[in-house]
Amino acid sequence: MNRTSVEAYLRDGCGRCDKYQTPACKVHRWTAILVELRTLVRASGLVEEMKWGSPCYTLDGRNVVMLVAFKDACALQFMEGAALVDDEGLLEAPGPNSRFVRSLRFRSAEEFEARKDLAARLVAQARVRAHSGTKLTVEPADDPIPVELERRFAADPALSSAFEALTPGRRRSHILHIAGAKQSETRARRVDRCAPDILAGRGFHER
User: How many alpha carbons lie under 13 Å from residue 183 in its C-beta half-sphere?
Assistant: First the structure.
């Protein structure tokens, strides 16, 4: 992983795969836009560092925003983007389970030109938030309960009651583990595995 400098990142790539230091590195697909984004973020006064193989911009040691490159886009990734005002609705969650991070993606030079003023406003907003020291809190999402778990609850009221007594985070950990299996039979086996922990008041990752 490239942890040396942003210059090395732009020249050689992130170092997170075997395409490091080759023309096939995804960073090279977006070099021009990444350079522009770097200039934009540095103008905000945030401190430039390298973390996790990507440029990261901090304030008083607090991670605020990163530059990231994907196959189909590059992006500004706001560490507490869920708290930013996004009237245009262009901030995207990196994945279905992302609670805080939000990305402003750029899929072409034209899209960068159309969004660069918004990017500057979001960076300024994120900096103000980081300077305030406000901590982001997000209510746990109501994830759908897998049907295999619902069936088990119907047959086992004690398990259902124990599940409802868990904290939202612990309930969610079991739901995500069970729902992550593609096959119904596998999800059912995961229900069996989770049941003792649910009855003991533990989350999936607690042992």
Answer: 3
How far apart CA 129 and CA 140 sit, in angstroms, is 21
Confidence (pTM): 0.68
Domain boundaries of the chain, sorted by first residue:
6-132, 147-199
How many angstroms separate the CA atoms of 134 and 83, rounded?
10
- State how far the Cα of 159 lies from the Cα of 195, in Å rounded to an integer: 7
- Closest by CA to 73, choosing from 30, 117, 39, is 30
| Residue whose token pair is 């985070």 | 169
Structure confidence at residue 76 (pLDDT): 96
Interatomic CA distance for residues 76 and 81, integer angstroms = 10
pLDDT in tens, 35-66: 999 999 999 999 999 988 899 999 998 999 99
At residue 50, the 3 state secondary structure works out as: strand
CATH architecture of structural domain 6-132: Alpha-Beta Complex (3.90)
**Separation of alpha carbons 134 and 166, rounded Å:** 27
Contact status, residue 203 vs residue 170, Cβ threshold 8 Å: yes
